[in-house]
Amino acid sequence: MSSFRRAQQWATFARVWHLYDMRWQNPYESSHLIGKYLSGRAKPIYHPLNDCGDHVVVINSKEVALPGDDWYRRAYFHHRTYAGTKTWTLAYELHEANNTLIVKKAVYYALDKNLLRRPIMERLHIFPDANIPPAIAANITNQIRPLRPVPVKLEEIPQEVEKDCPQLFDLPKDFVLGGNVWGKPEPERKAQPIRTPYKPWGKEPR
Amino acid sequence: MFLSTLLSFKFNPNRLYNPGPTKFWRRRRVLKQSAHFFGRRRNCYRIAIRTLEKALQYAVKGRQAKCEDLMKLRTQRVASGAEELGMDLRVMRRGLDSARICLDYHSLADLSAWEPRTFKALGNFAWNNYASQGLGDIQSFGNPPEGVILRGLKKLN
Amino acid sequence: MNSRQLNLNESETHLHGKHGKQPITFTLVSAPSSYFLNFWSVDSCQKKMLRALNLLRSVGTPVNSFSRTFGVSPWRSLKEIRERQDGDTLIIEAVHVKSPREGHVVKSDNQHGACSLCALGLDVKHTDILIIKQFMDSEAKLYPRKITGLCRWQQRKMRYVIEMAIRAGLVNPLVASQPIPAYQRGWRKFNTYFDESEIPPSKSEYAIQKVKEFEEAYQLAKAEKDAHEEMLKTQRERRLSRS
Predict the structure, then answer these.
(1) Contact residues, chain C, for A95 at CB < 8 Å
(2) Which of A32, A67, B87, C165 is the most exposed place for a label (fewest CB within 10 A)?
(3) In the predicted model, is pLDDT for residue C94 greater than 50?
(4) How far away is chain A from the Cα of B76, in angstroms, using its nearest Cα?
């Protein structure tokens, strides 16, 4: 084989290491994308028995975002196979205990349900923040574009941009800046429920 | 003497029609097909015939399943090739169809895996064609690559 | 109540335009079709309104695409209550201040008298905090409708959107003296995003009537657009058959 052909062979069949930033992403939407790269479906040489899957390094898994009231509605079931050891753990409890598990479970359940799933999961590396061990970081050659746009917090926007932003209306004449607009003593602010079409598994904890 | 017995065996005047294969030959026909089965299923006729009937039914279903599996694999390969180029499978498919480029998934899959530059040329053409005819929502993929000439193409409608 | 005695440096600096001390007013090129179309953001009109949208949503894009007309309009005077210590006495006075929004207010060619959001056809998401911030006070509460100038529909939507933005942690109430509010403790410190399509629709008669009106206008505009596209198609076919 000539050196050109050898290089071509390596380039076609090499195992690639991808990076995915989980910051403000939905783990369940992203898991399908990550599963695609893990199983090798992103390659035209794909075959289920070809073992052409890639490695994916997920960072910032502690900053994962769930929609609406999922943090206290979504429950994870676990049974230790002993009588009476069924547990339903809510998403925020699980995240407090181990901040990589939500992502891991999401990807596990997004993959094909066959015997290849376990070795494919070995190729998924999840880190809660952006600190990656140097041995793994040296292998990464590609970044997967995240699905959701990362929102910007108001405090992160620079002052000049905030001031130059076009305003939709001007405040009325003789409006008192910083004053009480409602004319009554301010009642204690209560978070109103945003009704989502969701099944109540857990109640909103106080 | 040998010849006379042979003749008598072959030419029996009591029989007016060809009775077809005898028991031996009928069973041999089955056992030949079950030669690769396990255990008594390959040697004993009664068991072999049952297993063989089932095997032939599976073969009928399997022919269909093979087509489906291969189709699924090929579309997956074409889709991943198209996504490497920055677009979608449906964009590629419609872009080629509307220009009457009759390449099926078999050919496209082989090209995407083993002839990447040809596939890229086809993909770029399909993308440009799709975008120029306004067939659907192309904005999410951005602008198609330049350097493609679409000349005198009629829409397949 | 003489404003000149007080220090107005802070309010003056951000009112200067890029070309000197004159106030700048922005004028939008209005779309030919009705504002109902913009509200539903049909593709062709969405492109026309993209300029406004990009500007309001973006962080740090230049404003050069807008046409500028230099006008000398009297600035809106607002009141600000200031306290100062003068020896023994504590003087609390209301001072006339230039509106901080002076020179940045968008002027749209609003024939129908629609509210600002409907006229521009903006579909406000909970992540558009630069837009949302304009409708809230320093304690992250929505202004009443008389001040915001929104229609009932948009005001209600803005109420939900503000709540979403707060729960997502994008807008914190700016009152520093308060303790960590209840919606930032425990599980609420994790990231949450929202889907605006899940805002429950209002069941009032007014809302139902409005929905009907919008639907009819949308169907009319869609028919217009389809007729226009068909005309373009026939033109294109004629051109191709000739060539």
Answers:
(1) 190
(2) A32
(3) yes
(4) 7
Closest Cα in chain C, distance from residue A140 (Å) = 27
> Environment class of residue B30 by beta-carbon count within 10 Å: exposed (0-12), middle (13-18) or buried (19+)?
middle
The token pair that represents A54 in the structure block: 């890639």
Q: With beta carbons less than 8 A apart as the criterion, state whether A46 and B77 touch.
A: yes
The answer to whether the beta carbons of residues A76 and A104 sit under 8 Å apart is no
Number of other CB atoms surrounding residue C232 within 10 Å: 11
Average pLDDT over residues C45-70: 42
The more confidently predicted of residues C67 and A5 is: A5
Q: How many residues does chain B have?
A: 157
Nearest Cβ partner of B112 from A42, A44, A47?
A44
Read off the tokens for A26: 């939905």
B61: closest CA of chain A, how far (Å): 21
Q: How far is C208 from chain A (nearest CA, A)?
A: 20
Task: Inspect the interface and report whether the beta carbons of C99 and A171 lie closer than 8 Å.
Answer: yes
A189 touches chain B (CB under 8 A): no
Interface of C with A in 163-202 (CB under 8 A): 163-164, 167-172, 181-183, 186-188, 190-195, 198, 200
User: How many angstroms separate the CA atoms of B113 and A200, rounded?
Assistant: 48
Distance CA C180, CA C172 (A): 10
> Do the Cβ atoms of A192 and C183 come closer than 8 Å?
no
Query: How crowded is the C-beta side of C131, counted as CA atoms within 13 Å?
Result: 21
Q: Quick one: which of C194, C137, C182, C179 has its CA closest to A191?
A: C182
Nearest to A195 among C78, C81, C200 (CB): C200
Would you write out chain A's pLDDT as a tens digit for each of its 206 residues? 899 999 999 999 999 999 999 999 999 999 999 999 999 999 999 999 989 999 999 999 999 999 988 898 899 999 999 999 999 999 999 999 999 999 999 999 999 999 999 999 999 999 999 999 999 999 999 999 999 999 998 888 898 998 889 999 888 887 888 766 665 555 555 555 555 444 445 555 55
- Percent of chain B scoring above 70 in pLDDT: 89
- Continuous segment of H or E residues that includes residue A110: helix A101-110
pLDDT beyond 80 at C243: no
Q: How far apart are CA C172 and CA C189, in angstroms?
A: 12
**Whether C117 and A168 lie within 8 Å, measured CB to CB:** yes
Tell whether C76 lies on the interface with A, counting CB pairs under 8 A.
yes
Mutate to test the interface with C, among A157, A167, A201 (most CBs of C within 10 A): A167
C109-139 b/e with 16+ CB inside 10 Å = b? eeeeebbbbbbbbbebbbbbbbbbbbbbbee
Q: Which residues of B touch C243 (CB under 8 A)?
A: 152
- For the question of whether the overall pTM of this predicted structure is more than 0.80, the answer is no
- Digit-coded pLDDT (tens) for B58-83: 999 999 999 999 999 999 999 999 99
Cα nearest neighbour of B153 on chain C: C240
Of C61 and A69, the one with more pLDDT: A69
Interface of B with C in 134-153 (CB under 8 A): 152-153
In angstroms, what CA-CA distances link A130 with A57, A62, A100, A133?
10, 10, 13, 10
